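Blackboard transcription, Thursday session:
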Amino acid sequence: MSVKLKDIAEVCEVNVSTVSRALRGDPRVNETTAKQITTKAAELGYSPNLAARQLVSGRTLNLWLLIPDLKLTIVQEPTQFLSEFLHANGYELLITLYHNNSEKFQHLLEKLSQNVADGAFIIPTEYDPKFYLPLLQKNFPLVFIDREGFSGENTTVTTANKQAAYELVKKCHQAGAKQFILNFEFENNAGRNRQNGALEYICARQLPFSVWPQQPPLSCTNVPTAIIGSSGISSENIVLSISGNVPNAKFIIGNFDFPPTILDKTEKVFVCHQNFSAIAKTAGQLMLDKIQNISNAHKTIEIPPEGIICVK
Amino acid sequence: MSVKLKDIAEVCEVNVSTVSRALRGDPRVNETTAKQITTKAAELGYSPNLAARQLVSGRTLNLWLLIPDLKLTIVQEPTQFLSEFLHANGYELLITLYHNNSEKFQHLLEKLSQNVADGAFIIPTEYDPKFYLPLLQKNFPLVFIDREGFSGENTTVTTANKQAAYELVKKCHQAGAKQFILNFEFENNAGRNRQNGALEYICARQLPFSVWPQQPPLSCTNVPTAIIGSSGISSENIVLSISGNVPNAKFIIGNFDFPPTILDKTEKVFVCHQNFSAIAKTAGQLMLDKIQNISNAHKTIEIPPEGIICVK
DNA sequence: CTGAAAGCGCTTACAG
DNA sequence: CTGAAAGCGCTTACAG
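(Written on the board underneath:)
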């Protein structure tokens, strides 16, 4: 079996507590015995049993990140930053997938209740808020990213979606758009906030708009039309779907993160870049604060986007 | 603090061992006391401390997956399957990023030595094989995916890359290609095997070829040219780069996984789809076998691709 | 059916 | 500077 403190203690003819101290660099142990212990430990290929350490310290130095899916931009982009930030602070980031499956999600929350991690980041789907009750009772450190897991007392780090969408629509309007097709996701509050921001601009000016695909489409003949939404690919699909009927139509596009890949049939394309690095670092710092009990305020922090770029 | 077995024992006026048994569903405990214990445990919001369990069982029921980066196809596609497969078998898949950073990679291997997981899947970068020594000495269950972590005794699950590339070139040849530009990655044996497979077909027939970008480019004027490589996007870039000089050139493309997004300037496009689900399940099963000591054979398992599709 | 005890591998006051 | 002891929260032979 694997080497334990006891084995080293026997070889070096000292007590396990001395071995433990030496290996942790406790200055109290005699320099020469310390040296002897560390070299023997290396020789024997000793590595500590983290489960045992956890049991006494009550900490794991692990943080989990719960995600629905690996293919989302909001997963791929901030995660790299978050992992590096936490590593620099002595924590390991462990990513777990719930596959947009509510049972798997519950299962992961249950695991979190069992002290597998010191805290968790969650990119949530809107499930029953009761799922979180055991964790909340324990005051388990939880930071939501991008969207709220439930309304009420929670900590969420997200883009300033409402303002961002407002500005995006404004750019498109200034570029000549006379009417707007809105295409935001409704399943989470990030998408709904974006829609609200877009509507705020549009309604204040009484501009014509329709919500895709729920409302009947606007007629796009001879009217400069903007398509506003989260995803460039969705916008691209709307362009394809509409321009079948209106061959010469040219669109103005405004979306988040990445532009459409095909830019024919577009006149202007604006892209709002979220600040993923800032989102990750803010979420990371909030987590550290919670763990160290510096602060456990329940708040939503909105990160301004990096900017809106005119791609075409 | 959180509820422990002891707390429940006190409330129910029984010994902790009885509580432990009741909660684990041991049939020996009296039905009514068992019921009392389980209801009390639920009332108090008891959840077991996994660190303590690990310490006695020596198992974590966790498996780690070490990856360089979230954006790779070979990461995104099999991971979903692997996670589900392992979950169905009682294990948790925890994904960790090493950011193509050799120190972070070493750090993760070190953690693995410390009993944080019962085994690990690795999508490796070719680092110093010595990194693995401590793990190999412990006979720690390791399964490589897509590429070998080091040559010699290891277990790797990968696509039958050589044959796949051979067939891909064959398709392009049959579609009329008279010369070939090869564009495979050299940093890992998956890419090198593909190149070997491609070359086997090409050299046997003495067809002209060049290796991009190392060798001087072929002249593509009036000669049907195939671009063969792993990535559709790279092929696309080669098309763009060449067709600047040869405006009317039309290419035949053969690549893995996903076609280029822009198909102008291509005459035919073949895509070889790897069987990610089979890769994941095979890797998962091999891991379970190793953990249960059913088999610890060191072997490379090659999964045939799902097929080669003509996209255009 | 249940309890008392030992043990998993480590850490850390406490005493000397 | 070092050892003996207690304890982290659980499980599981062993006895009864």
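Lecturer's comment: The CA atoms of residues 81 and 185 of chain A lie 25 Å apart.
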